[in-house]
């Protein structure tokens, strides 16, 4: 099965490029990716949270504003999509992620209902690539076992079709009551039930949008959101280049 | 005789359910890989037993009969579901796995162990672990669990449903963790069983000081755990702790149902067999040279209980030995409630004055805000030092904080002593 691994940390404590700490952290990520190997089916590092913009739906017309959906101390720094036989196998991998051991770091593991990644090998042209995460109040229709789920799924299918080649990847996750949060403190693994933060809860899922800045904004405005919800847009960091 | 001859068989079925349901469920769950289906199948098997056994008599090995019948029931359900196209693949796989198993099954010890680990998985919240363990390992009905935990049946049902949904959806596997993970996974199993015991032994809700049925259930689970993990010191230490505390169960409550404090207990009423057995498991646990810190904490708690259990009188208690064990416990796990207990031990080892400062330091700890354990201990020290007015103020505060009737009675009695309101005799 597939797991969405969301990595949260206090950005102000982040290591600076060019320092030994930064290099050690990068090495730890390389070591993680070697360890996890074929279990990693996707993932991105994100630009600093100051670059976050939010698609708001509280007016007659959706609009894009600067800043996040909710102000929090620990922000999403990146994600992985893992293919693992069970939650325990996923935890055995993510416990080695450096963010797990950071003083404010935490990893949220969410079971994935379904996902797709249509990017060519190497990750596309990377003109403007953003991660669009869907936030808001969860309803019964977010549960794939619920009959209302099909209606939402059809809405998203229509969105993906209409977005053409701008939507390059995406995934649907199970409701946050199936989430598990993993931390590591003093070497000891701490596993807790539930999402990392109710405030930053990702509901429904995420998309990766790729295109010119104008096209990405145009498509972002179309992403279906739950009532009272919003879509956060975070530019993806080009770490391969 | 007015009662027909089916009466003893009904009792036998009830007995079989009590002793076999957990094991049968664990094996069927392994075979079908689905908790709901396994539960349904085991329930159905008992329904069949209720119909059949009064006629045929109770089989020689009721557990094997129930497990096999539950397997057959599961096959029926999967065949029916296999006709529904969308579930065909899933049902087909499970059905083939099931049909490949031999018809006579012996409940397998490992199956129950993996059920234990699944129910106590750290990715479930602690209250759900307790409910799920009582249900799936203990084989209790929702209604019984609700009664034991003194909560509403719909709440328990919802909690169990939610936990099972998380197990299924989040990919919590039915498995025994590999040996290298046992040190971090065994403690959450121990904690769950201990939570069940303490809820019975120092009930946090309700009018009874001790709830026997819950203590008994916890002891049954602890014994099962010792059997399932014979090479681990943790279950030995937990069983020792439970037995040593439980040996005082009879003496902890007076005939009127009032809580009797350790100092005032009639030690003749302590259960010597439970003490002996507890000391046996404690020695076994202590024989392990290098327990993990979380297991070591159970060993220390059990050895504190052993000091009390072996003291002929309250006065003969080896308080300095108890203080040194609390010191070790604080070093392992600096929890404020352990600090409170350590200070109480110091007050008996070195006098109440020495403990006063240690307790006052804890007053500002937010984790102890509103804790009757701290306020009660602070009041007790002042009472023993003859500071009646200060003690009375604190007993009044403790009375505002207590949640159970038996605790309330203890503090009310002390307050009456301080204010001179009580009637002698």
Can you put this structure into words, describing what you see?
The complex is a heterodimer of chains A (241) and B (425). Chain A is an alpha+beta fold. Chain A has one domain (2-237): Alpha-Beta Plaits (2-Layer Sandwich), CATH 3.30.70. Chain A has helices at 20-36, 87-94, 98-101, 149-163, 213-220; strands spanning 2-10, 40-46, 53-56, 63-66, 74-83, 106-117, 128-135, 167-173, 180-185, 188-193, 202-211, 230-237. Chain A has an eight-stranded antiparallel β-barrel. Chain A is globular, with a radius of gyration of 17 Å. The mean pLDDT of chain A is 89. With 425 residues, chain B is mainly α. Chain B has a domain at 7-107. Chain B is built from 19 helices and no strands. In chain B, helix 16 (352-360) runs antiparallel to helix 17 (372-384). The longest helix of chain B has 26 residues, at 7-32. Mean pLDDT of chain B is 87; it is low at 1-6. The chains are: A alpha+beta (241), B mainly alpha (425). Chains A and B meet through helix 2 and strand 10 of A and helix 8 of B.
């Amino acid at each position: 099965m597939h797991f969405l691994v969301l990595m949260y940390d206090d950005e102000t404590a982040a290591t600076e490029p060019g320092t030994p700490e930064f290099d050690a952290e990068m090495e730890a990520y390389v070591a993680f990716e070697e360890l996890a190997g074929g279990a990693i089916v996707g993932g991105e590092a994100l630009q600093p949270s100051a670059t976050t913009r939010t698609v708001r739906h509280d007016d007659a017309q959706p609009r894009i504003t600067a800043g996040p959906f909710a102000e929090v101390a620990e922000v999403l720094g990146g994600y992985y999509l893992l293919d693992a036989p069970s939650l325990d196998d996923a935890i055995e991998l993510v416990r080695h992620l450096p963010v797990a051991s950071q003083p404010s770091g935490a990893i949220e593991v969410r079971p994935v209902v379904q996902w797709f990644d249509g990017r060519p090998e190497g990750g596309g042209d990377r003109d403007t690539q953003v991660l669009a995460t869907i936030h808001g109040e969860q309803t019964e229709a977010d549960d794939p076992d619920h009959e209302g789920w099909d209606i939402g799924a059809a809405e998203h299918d229509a969105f993906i079709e209409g977005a053409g080649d701008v939507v390059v990847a995406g995934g649907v996750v199970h409701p946050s009551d199936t989430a598990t949060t993993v931390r590591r403190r003093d070497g000891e693994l701490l596993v807790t039930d539930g999402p990392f933060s109710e405030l930053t809860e990702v509901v429904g899922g995420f998309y990766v949008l790729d295109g010119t800045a104008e096209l990405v904004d145009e498509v972002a405005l179309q992403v279906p959101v739950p009532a009272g919800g919003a879509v956060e847009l975070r530019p993806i960091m080009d770490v391969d280049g | 005789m007015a009662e027909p001859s089916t009466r003893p068989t009904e009792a036998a079925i009830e007995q079989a359910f009590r002793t076999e349901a957990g094991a049968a469920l664990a094996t069927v769950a392994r075979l079908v890989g689905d908790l709901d289906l396994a539960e349904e199948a085991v329930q159905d098997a008992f329904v069949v037993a209720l119909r059949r056994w009064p006629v045929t008599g109770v089989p020689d090995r009721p557990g094997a009969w129930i497990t096999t019948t539950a397997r057959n029931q599961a096959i029926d359900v999967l065949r029916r579901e296999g006709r529904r196209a969308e579930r065909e693949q899933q049902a087909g796989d499970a059905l083939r796995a099931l049909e490949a198993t031999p018809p006579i099954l012996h409940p397998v010890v490992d199956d129950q162990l993996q059920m234990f680990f699944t129910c106590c998985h750290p990715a479930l919240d602690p209250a759900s672990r307790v409910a799920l363990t009582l249900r799936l390992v203990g084989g209790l009905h929702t209604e019984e669990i609700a009664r034991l935990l003194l909560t509403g049946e719909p709440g328990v049902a919802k909690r169990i449903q939610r936990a099972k949904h998380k197990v299924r959806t989040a990919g919590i596997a039915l498995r025994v963790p590999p040996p290298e993970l046992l040190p971090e996974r065994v403690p959450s199993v121990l904690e769950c069983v201990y939570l069940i015991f303490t809820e019975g032994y120092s009930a946090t809700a309700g009018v009874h000081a001790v709830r026997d049925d819950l203590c008994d259930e916890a002891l049954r689970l602890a014994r099962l755990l010792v059997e399932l993990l014979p090479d681990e010191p943790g279950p030995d230490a937990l069983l020792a702790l439970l037995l040593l505390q439980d040996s005082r169960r009879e003496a902890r409550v007076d005939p009127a149902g009032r809580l009797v404090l350790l100092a005032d207990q009639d030690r003749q009423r302590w259960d010597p067999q439970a003490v002996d057995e507890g000391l046996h498991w404690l020695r076994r646990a202590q024989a392990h040279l290098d327990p993990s810190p979380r297991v070591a904490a159970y060993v220390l708690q059990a050895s504190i209980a052993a000091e009390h259990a072996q003291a002929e009188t309250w006065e003969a208690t080896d308080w300095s030995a108890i203080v040194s064990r609390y010191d070790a416990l604080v070093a392992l796990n600096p929890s404020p409630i352990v600090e409170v207990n350590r200070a109480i031990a110091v007050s008996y080892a070195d006098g109440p004055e020495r403990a006063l400062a240690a307790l006052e330091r804890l007053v500002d700890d937010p984790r102890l805000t509103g804790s009757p354990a701290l306020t009660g201990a602070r009041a007790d020290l002042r009472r023993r030092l003859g500071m009646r007015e200060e003690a009375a103020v604190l007993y009044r505060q403790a009375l505002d904080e207590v949640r159970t009737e038996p605790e309330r009675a203890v503090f009310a009695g002390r307050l009456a002593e301080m204010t001179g309101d009580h009637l002698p005799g």
